[in-house]
Design a protein that fits this description.
Length: about 240
Amino acid sequence: MSNSLLRRLVAPTAAAAIAATAAFVGAGAASAHVTANAPTLAQGGYGVVTFVVPNESDTAATTELTVTLPNLKSARPEAMSGWRSEVAKDPSTEAVTSITWTALPGTPGVPVGEFAQFRISGGPFPEEDSVMLPATQIYADGERVAWAEPMGADGEEPEHPAPTLTLPAATDGDDHHGGSASHGSTDTAGSAETTEASDSTDDAARWLGGIGLLVGALGAVIGVAALTRSGRRGGGSDTERGSDA
C-alpha cells in the first residue's frame, strides 16, 4: 500500500477523532449551569431531587440559591453545613412553592471555581413529561442570575436554561403516597449517593472516551510518519544496490 493511499485513509479518521474529542470538551463546558436530576422520580410521585450549582463567577462566591417548586404537598431540604434553608408555602393551600438556601455568615458559600449540590425530598410532582424548576443564583457581590428560560422550540439551549426534570410515566411499583419523602435520612442519603456516583461515572466516561479517540488519532498519524520514513530508507537501499551491481 502506498504512502499516499495510507494518508488518504488515515486523515479522515484522525480528523473525526479530534472533532469528537472537541465535542466532549465542549459538552463539559456547556453544562456549567444550574441543573436538576432525580433518577428515581416518576410522574405524580415523591422522591429526591438534586440541584447541581456551579459557581460561574470569576470573583465572587455563590451565597444564595432559590428554587421554585410546582406547589408540592411536601418538600424538605437536606441539612447542609454552613447553609440555612427556608421553605416558602402558599398561605391558602400550604403547598410548598419554593426553597431558599442562604450561606451563613463567616462561611465560604460556593467558592469560585467550585460547585455544590442542594437536595430536597418531596412530592407529589406533576403528572407531566417534564417539569421546569426555575432557580435564582445570587453571588456575594450582589450579582443575580435567573436560571428560568425554557428550551427553544428548535431544541436550542438558551443562555440561562431553567433546571428541568424529565419524568417517566408511573408504574405499579412507584410510590405515590409520600413513601420516599417520609423515609429516614438513610434513604435520602442513599439516593443522593447514587445520583452523585452516576454523574461522576458519566463525566469520566465522556472524558476517557474523548481522550481515547485523540490518542488513537495521534497513533495513526505517527504510524503514517513511520511508514513514510521506512519507504524512503527502502528506496535509498535499492538505489545503492543498483549502483553496486
